[in-house]
Amino acid sequence: MQSIPGGVGLGLRYSFAEEVLNKEDSPRWFEIAPENWMRRGGFFRKTLERIRERFPIVCHGLSLSIGSPDPINREFLKELKDFLDSFHIEVYSEHLSFSSLGGSYLHDLFPLPFIEDTVKRVSRKVAEVEEILERPLILENISYYWKPPGEMEEWKFINSVLEESGARLLLDVNNVYVNSLNHGYDPYEFIERLDLSKVAYIHVAGHERFDRIVIDTHGAPVIEEVYRLLEFTLERTGPVPILLERDNNVPPYEELLSEVRRLEEVCGAKRAG
Q: How many Å apart are CA 118 and CA 69, to the nearest integer?
């Protein structure tokens, strides 16, 4: 059984990693992208070891490419398992997407066709990944900027993958909001149609508008509309862990902590209710 931290966590970045160790007012847990840390030694590894001694850490991967027709990269998974084992990290999530094709990595996350064949392919790969890592896999709904072909709606596709594979859901509320603007649907209705009993934890982040498209940049503060959608979601899920992502235009650590405190207020209000 995975040990998922409670309360509000923060995505760990190099720019403030040392501050985490020198500040009492820190989030309850941190999330890292293993690809950014697993091949680093020296100062970076020592810093991560010290943080791990004080805080729970979960991993959110970037390059598994669970939906690609390519075979799973087993060598990468073995290296990943060694990393997870060495830091005693039990929680691992990835994106319900593909990021490699024909043996080449595309350095982005692309949506999958919302069809039954994809459901079956992803489910088979989930079983393979879990066997190698000896950990359950959590899958995240992604933001996407062109609508893939499909015979079902995205929410139904996600539900089908979760049911067929047994994986749990990392629900990115900001991605739902961004997709609703770009593809013209009601984000509240989308949330209600998801199987929320499968939610392991929630991501929130900021986004930016460029002309006629909204991009999930993780480079701005969380906006009020996303906070409202988060509150709506928590009313239906009950208290689940929440993670604040900030990958670009990373502000001072204290500014990030103010966003963490705002999220804690949202969680506290919903728990009290």
A: 9
